Give the backbone structure.
Amino acid sequence: MAHLINNNVFLAFSTYATIVVLKMMFMSFITVYYRMTRKAFSNWEDTAMGNNNPEDRKKLLQTNPDVERVRRCHQNDLENIIPFVVIGLLYALTGPDLSTALLHFRVFVGSRFIHTVAYVMALPQPSRALAWIVGLFTTFSMAYRVLTAALFL
Amino acid sequence: MAHLINNNVFLAFSTYATIVVLKMMFMSFITVYYRMTRKAFSNWEDTAMGNNNPEDRKKLLQTNPDVERVRRCHQNDLENIIPFVVIGLLYALTGPDLSTALLHFRVFVGSRFIHTVAYVMALPQPSRALAWIVGLFTTFSMAYRVLTAALFL
Amino acid sequence: MAHLINNNVFLAFSTYATIVVLKMMFMSFITVYYRMTRKAFSNWEDTAMGNNNPEDRKKLLQTNPDVERVRRCHQNDLENIIPFVVIGLLYALTGPDLSTALLHFRVFVGSRFIHTVAYVMALPQPSRALAWIVGLFTTFSMAYRVLTAALFL
């Protein structure tokens, strides 16, 4: 595999893909944090935690706006970061210029960090919409390169 | 990376995977379109849009059946297209016949386009169920090839 | 592609990634099974099934706790198994020891099977939480290796 490991575009893809996937996984911790502090759970077995009174436990089976907000942010990550990883991998294999590839990877990863901050902190629009659109068009730009460099129908 | 780029099965995989991931990303635009036209949003900051009356804005925080339908379709894409991409990539690396590989890729991608039309337009069953099953079994067929060609437990 | 196919770490990754993705896809069948037996559907066109009385069909458009539980389990798979596949692929390409790689792959896949059983059967906590955490840290360990072996910012 030496040729992949010695290829800077592929190394850059590996680095940025890993960082942005770790960011996506981090949403789970924020969800758990909000579930604990807002006392809002979805599963009966999650409501025990030292309290065995069924009436008290039933009250913990509720939805909470903060939990739902983080979950929507996590879902948006799944809908956007996974396409970036798939198309970015194929893009890296088409042999683009290193500087062009780095631009794509950095803009995408930056846009998703801004998107998360805008979503979780409920910043006024169009901050979140713009971050989303920038990430989307970065992925489209890489897809265009894949389809022009490697089209085989 | 010349050997991947010169491999027709891998080029075909790149092409069909990119097309079907772009189709999946397109669901976001349909969701935004329905949210705008049906005036149904999930986040308070999304309801401003030139209107600062809190009472009017609160009414926009609603669920809408058309929005929910598109979101279920998008979710079904995540649950089926991502497994195709993962297993399809590994399948392409096992060196299958080009014609067999093309058959798998084309049937899968076709089935997902039909699935989306059947879901968004609410066509009578079993149209959507059949499209889903065909995509599923295409992925299973590729997984069978991966596990028989590359099993290492 | 002979060098990938002859590389045991990559073969092991292919095998375990395929198995755990198939497990994830299997959640769809459990969802369908519960929707059928609990008579709980989300789409009007899914409620026909030999019954044309609109009143009877309307009653089938309901949420059911068993269906929702399986869907949450499937969602948790998407949130955890896809990061494993992405980071595991990059990890396999960094050329780790075969025994270390096998340990990561086996622990992750095992933890996700235990997680599914704990979730679907509603086993008392912390069984599900522990299975989730073990899978998470296995992925973090592989990400650490990718970032130290291939960092290129």
In short: The mean pLDDT of chain B is 92. Chain B has six helices and no strands. Chain B touches chain C at residues 3-4, 7, 10, 68-69, 72, 78-80, 82-83, 86-87, 90, 93-95, 119, 122-125, 128, 136, 139-140, 143, 146-147, 149-153 (CB under 8 Å). The radius of gyration of chain B is 20 Å.
